[in-house]
Amino acid sequence: MKAAVVLAALFVVPAAAVPQTAPAPTFSAAVAAVQAATPQPSWNWPFSPRPAVLRAFDPPDKPWMSGHRGVDLGATHDGVMVLSPESGTVSFVGVVVDRPVITIDHGGGLRSSFEPVESSLTAGDAVAKGEAIGTLRPGHCGVLACVHWGVRRGEAYVNPLDFVMDLRPSILLPVTPKPPMALELELPVTPKLPVTPKPPVTLDDG
After folding, report:
1. Which residue from 67, 175, 188, 192 puts its CA 20 to 30 A from 92's CA?
2. What is the pTM of this model?
3. How far apart, in whole angstroms, are the C-alpha atoms of residue 206 and residue 203?
């Protein structure tokens, strides 16, 4: 009897000691997490009307490698006004290598840089969303008029189009299948033919 009691005590495990498995995240929760990690498109385009993207964002695998750390946006012609995509403060105006550059600090670690753009603004000037910040100069895309727009979050370059377009991937939600519908087949009806009466049979006795 004592042995049975000892064995029963060994196999009784407190509920708190049993590891609890966290419930798996639902599909909708996973979708919400992906969308929350992607910037929401709330900025304006630097040109009006909306420009064409002549060269897309193509960052290098390593910081020291070559790549395209921004986007090239087509303009109708050289000399058009470049607009601030979001409100902020001018943090730099000057010449880098051989082209004029202007940088806008939007806060939250985000900065926009535009080249080749000539501006009369100076560092410290506040700019509003959609305000003209300078004029486009020729030379960046050869014979085509274009501006190079780069966006940095901290020191890392990010895709500027994330802030003006919804680039989140489309996610198909599961659909509960409907039960198959019963098919009602109409069989052809054979028409009834009229019955011809038979003549009476006459017996010949003769």
Report:
1. 67
2. 0.64
3. 9
What value does the CA radius of gyration of the chain take, rounded to a whole number of Å?
38
Q: Which residues pair with 139 in a beta bridge?
A: 142
User: Look-up: residue for tokens 């500027």?
Assistant: 160
CA gap 131, 125 in Å, rounded: 12
Distance CA 40, CA 32 (A): 13
Q: Specify which residues 42 forms β-bridges with.
A: none
Which residues are CB-contacts of 136 (< 8 A; sequence separation ≥ 6)?
Answer: 75, 78, 79, 80, 81, 82, 116, 117, 145, 146, 147
What is the separation, in whole angstroms, between the first and last Cα of the chain? 118
pLDDT tens digits for 168-198?
665 555 665 666 665 555 556 666 666 666 6
Both tokens of 146, joined, read 């274009």
User: What H or E segment, with its residue span, contains residue 30?
Assistant: helix 27-36
| Beta-bridge partners for 149 | 71, 114
Paired residues of 110 in beta bridges: 107, 153
Do the beta carbons of residue 117 and residue 137 sit within 8 Å?
A: yes
Do 124 and 89 meet the contact criterion of CB atoms below 8 Å apart?
Answer: yes
Q: Which helix (H) or strand (E) holds 90?
A: strand 88-96
